[in-house]
Amino acid sequence: MAKTLVIGASGLVGSEVVRLLEKKGQQVAQATSKKPSLPSQVHLDLVARSGLETAFEGVDRLFLMSPPGHTNQHELLGPAIDLARARGLRKVVFMTAMGANADPSAPMRRAELHLESSGVPFNILRPNWFMQNFHTFWIQGILSQGKIFLPVGKAKGSFIDTRDIAAVAAELLTRSDLDNRDFDLTGGEALDHDQVAAILSRETGKAISFQDVPPEAMMAGLLEAKLPRDYAEFLLMILGFFKAGYAERTTDAVQVITGRRPGTFEEYARDHRAAWASAPGLARDPSAKPAPA
Predict the structure, then answer these.
(1) Which residues contact 254 (CB under 8 A, 6 or more apart)?
(2) CATH of domain 129-160+186-248+260-293
(3) Residue 88, by phi and psi: left (phi above 0), alpha (psi -120 to 50) or beta?
(4) Which of 20, 95, 199, 288 is disulfide-compatible with 170, CB 3.0–4.6 A?
C-alpha cells in the first residue's frame, strides 16, 4: 500500500490532507516535531534536522511544506528533497505560496528549483492568502476591537479556503497525469478587506470592520506578538505585494484538479462563525443577521 509522509500534519492544510488521504484508503505518516503520541505519527523536526531518515522509512510519497516562522526555507527543505531523491519517492507535492516564483534568488523559489531539478515527480502548489487567516492570525483585532487591522488599503485578494488547498494536494498525491507541473491556487473571486468585513458581519451578526494601518504599526504588533524580526519583515514585504495588487488574480486550478469550484468566502465564514460570534465585548450590529446554518 502507498504510504505518504505529511509534513505539517497538525496544521490547517496538513491535517486536512491527512484526513482526505485516509478517506481514500491511503496509509499516512504524520510528521510531528514533538514526541509522537499516536501510532500514525513520526518524529521529524526540519529546523533541528532530526528524525529525517526515520520519518522516510517505507514512504513513497511526500507532502512538503516549510515550517512556519522561518525565512530560510531552502535550507530547511533541501535535506528532505535530497532524501526524497535518494529514496526514489514516486511523488512530492510541495506547498509554497503564490508569487514564490517571482524571484529566483528568494529562499522559497530556491527550494522549488531544488525540487524541480531533483528528478522526483512533483507538483508545486502556490496558494493565495488563506481565508482561515481571519480566524487565526488576524483574529485578535476582531476579538478585541471588532476590526481587521492590516496595511493593505483597498487592494483585493482571491482568498482561498485551506480545505481546497488540501483537496488539491490529496488529489495530486494519488494521481500522476499532472506530474511535474505547478499550480497557483485561488478562490473564485477577489475581495477587498471591507468586503471581507461585511461578510463576517453578516455571518456573525456583529459589527466587524476593516482599518488600514501603517506598515510601522503592523510591524510593532508583530514584534509585540514575539515573531522573529526577520519573519515579521517578510510578512510586511508580502503584505506590501498584496497592497500593490498582486493577490487579486484568480485561477481555475481548483476546479480543474478537483472537478468542483473552490469554496466561497461566505461558506468559509458560515462554517467558522463561532470563532467570531462568541467574541466577548464585540458590539452587535443591529443591521446584521446571521445567515441560517
Answers:
(1) 160, 164, 167, 168, 185, 186, 260, 261, 262
(2) 3.90.25.10
(3) left
(4) 20
**Prediction pTM value:** 0.94
Helix locations, 209-279, DSSP H: 215-224, 229-243, 253-258, 265-271, 274-277
Split at pLDDT 50, 70, 90, the class of 287 is very low
Which residues does residue 124 pair with via DSSP β-bridges, in sequence order?
94, 182
Look up the CATH architecture of domain 3-127: 3-Layer(aba) Sandwich (3.40)
Percent of the chain with pLDDT over 70: 94
Identify residue 171 by its one-letter amino acid code: E
Q: Which pLDDT band, with edges at 50, 70 and 90, does 277 fall under?
A: confident
Whole-angstrom CA distances from 251 to 136, 168, 247 are 25, 13, 11
